[in-house]
Structures are given as structure tokens and as C-alpha cells.
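Illustration 12: Uroporphyrinogen-III synthase.
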Amino acid sequence: MADRLNGYRILILETREEAQFSRLLTEQGADVLQCPMFTIHDAPDPAPVEAWIRRSIEKPFDDLVLLTGEGLRRLMKVVRRIGVEQEFVASLGKARKFARGPKPGKALREIGLEPQMTTEKPTSEGVAEMLSRLDLNGHRLGLQLYPDKDHSVLIGAIKAQGAEVDTVLPYTYDAQAADTNIIAAIDEMAYGRVDAIALTNLGQIRRLIEVARARGCEDRLREGLDRTPIASVGPAVSDELKSHGLRTDIYPAEDAFFMRPLISAMAAELGKKPPRAVARG
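Figure caption equivalent — predicted structure in C-alpha cell form:
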């Protein structure tokens, strides 16, 4: 049903898939306040990425672990640029494919492949737990990483199972982008002008707190979050919120950790009260 969020002002922190999220919210009538958090760039040195791709083609991995959908899409961008798309997709088809949550699975389906297993929890810990139940001894395992995260524990856990791990980091974040927009979003929450903030990945939380601390306004951020309902797409985001002493107010029903179920949960919860703009009027 359209217009379920008519009049509600929803803050989203733009990172990877938020263009789609913004469109879905707008279709439901929401007034979407967009805050760019950072931009994503291809790896500054393409040589290691290209070398990883060529190794995967020359000798296909036994297993492939994808931690993000963005990672596979960035790899495919390089693959197409160097003209080996058919060979690369064929090599991936020979590997057992493991996805950290639903987003890498979606990216695999875009190139006609399916994950053999998806983590119950879309976290690195969930990946390690899933792989711990498998025999990896003697396997060559390709591992796609993502930026701003120490992956040494996961890599160590896989190596401890006897696998040879070959990692690739196909993109990077611009950590300096959009500080001004982030401060403005913090102010909007502190002034009580936002009906909910919707969080879809844990990097958004870290970035919010990082910028607030650097600008000396962490107390104002926490004040704003105290008075603004916080919607979380899933357990990784909620765990990150909890680690910073923050709560989750809105959560998808039935463990459906996708954007549409999150929007439904927001509509159900926010619909209990009128939009703040109406209430103030």
C-alpha cells in the first residue's frame, strides 16, 4: 500500500544501496532527508585486483567467500575493463560460493550465479561460524574483503582449518566526504525535525560517531538519537548500535533483513503517531 509513510521525515545515510532505499521510501510517501556519508572508489592500485582475477581464472578457487555485494560488482567492473568477463564468471561457477548475508547473493544472481550457502548472521563472525562446519583442508579459498575493517581474525580462522586464503580488496572509502552534511543531519535530529533514522549498514554508525567526535559534537549526536526513533535493517547494524550504547527501536519482522521489510516495520511503528511536522503544526 502506497503512502504508508506520507508526511514522515526519514533520514537515510547514503552509502551503497541507498539510492534504491530512497526510491522505495519516496514511493511510500516519505519525505526523505538524504545525507551522503562517504563515496566509494575503485582500489587506487588496480594491479593487485587484476592479478587476483587472473589467478582465479587460471586456477579456479575451490571456495569463494563474498563479504559484500559491492565487492563483486567492483570486481566485475575490472573484469569487463580487462576483457575477461566470460572466463571469470565461468571460474566462479566452479567454486563453492559463500555469501555474508543477502547482498552478495543478489550480486551473484546479477551474473547468473547462486551462493551455495548464506550466513544466518550477515557478519564476519557469522562467516567464520558457517565455514567452521565445513572441511576446508587443502582448499584454495578466495576471500573478497571490504574497507575499514580488520579482517585478520576471519582470515586466521579460515587458515586454521587448513585452507590457503587469497584475498582481494576491490574498493575503498573516501573517509573525508560530506562532513558538513553529517553535522547538518545531527542538528536536524537534535532539533526534533526527523521522524526516524534508517540504518542499513554498520559503517554508517561508525562514520556518524567518528565525525561527531572529530567535530566535538558527540553529545549533540546522542541527544539527537535519544529523541529520534532508530530503524535497523538487521543484526549487524543492531549489534554495532549496542556496542556504542545505542538502541534499536524498529526492526524488520520475521528476520527479513531487507529494505522492504524494514520500510514495512517503519510504517507500522511510526503510524502509531502523527508525523512530527504535523504534531508541531
